[in-house]
Design goal:
Layout (H helix, E strand, L loop, with lengths): L5 E2 L17 E9 L4 E8 L5 E8 L7 E2 L17 E10 L4 E10 L2 E9 L6 E7 L3 E6 L8 E7 L6 E6 L6 E7 L11 E4 L4 E3 L2 E12 L2 E11 L7 E4 L10 H4 L7 E9 L2 E8 L3 E8 H9 L5
């Protein structure tokens, strides 16, 4: 099928060959637009099998990546509930605090938990601790407070594979939880489970969220990308959703890897009216695709929610 996203001609942008040390794989990067450069926080799976997060910088966001040789978040830092790994971060700029917030998955023997950390320079971080206990993944913060509260999308395992929302006065204590985007079930492309990706984008039509959807196949799961709209003042209410997937694994680097048939969005931002979406491909590389805000809004609004 035709894909609405345009893949970058430089894909894959980053593989293990670009790292300053040996590793098994690199993928699923959070992204921050610094206007004069782009920062990615890469998930790297080391030869131990555990994952850590390192920083990469590029002036154009596509080429000549300068990659750090030390982790910004590492399971050996001694933080609770992270001894088995640190994975899949999303990055959101919080204007009221003038700080970048990093939501990530910490792994330990009891499962996957959501951690929150803050940084101003992408060199040092302040861990705030767990937002949600196990078993939970795919957390991303909204870029501004809603009705006086911070808001976060996340995906608890006990929620049937659905995207949920929760609110907090301080980024530490979370509540008022509600299910936002459920998997469709059955043979749908997002029938098995869904998870939030890029930081929610505020538009005149609502909060635009780009998410991954999973369909179980005989050969294994296949991960594709779609979008939904949430109400601006009450984002626990979904108002529109793409009926079809907007991007699926097609290229060889998306079809073959440690986990084949995966396109997995973690980072992105808007420049002008263009959405830059960084995604992991087959758990083996970091890639980039773009789409206009108008194109994706027209697609989502033209289709029924179910």
């Amino acid at each position: 099928m035709d894909c609405s996203f345009l893949r970058c001609e430089h894909n894959p942008l980053i593989t293990t060959r670009d790292l300053p040390y040996r590793a098994n794989t690199v993928f699923n990067a959070g992204a921050a637009d610094l206007e004069t450069s782009v920062v990615l926080i890469l998930r790297v799976e080391s030869l131990s099998g555990r994952s850590h997060l390192i920083v990469a910088r590029s002036e154009d966001g596509m080429t000549n990546w300068q990659i750090g040789d030390r982790a910004i978040l590492h399971p050996d830092d001694g933080a609770a509930y992270e001894e088995y790994g640190v994975e899949d971060c999303r990055i959101t700029y919080l204007e009221d605090r003038e700080v970048w917030a990093i939501t990530y998955t910490g792994v330990h023997y009891a499962g996957h938990s959501i951690g929150v950390a803050l940084t101003r320079d992408f060199r040092t971080v302040e861990r705030l601790g767990l937002a949600f206990p196990s078993d939970n993944k795919n957390a991303v913060l909204f870029p501004r407070k809603i009705d006086g509260y911070y808001a976060m999308l996340h995906r608890p395992a006990s929620g049937g594979g659905s995207i949920w929302i929760a609110y907090s006065p301080d980024l530490i204590y979370w509540g008022r939880s509600a299910m936002v985007v459920p998997p469709r079930g059955g043979p749908w492309w997002d029938g098995t489970r869904v998870g939030a990706g890029v930081t929610p984008i505020e538009t005149e039509c609502g909060w635009l969220i780009i998410y991954h959807g999973v369909k179980g196949m005989v050969s294994g799961p296949i991960y594709r990308i779609g979008a939904a709209l949430l109400d601006l003042e009450n984002p626990s209410r979904m108002i529109a959703r793409s009926r079809r997937w907007l991007m699926g694994p097609e290229e060889p680097y998306e079809r073959m890897g440690d986990v084949p048939n995966v396109v997995f969005p973690c980072g992105g931002f808007v420049r002008g009216r263009d959405i830059w979406m960084y995604y992991g491909a087959a758990d083996a590389s970091v890639c980039l695709a773009t789409i206009t805000v108008d194109e994706i809004l027209n697609t989502v609004l033209s289709e029924p929610v179910f």
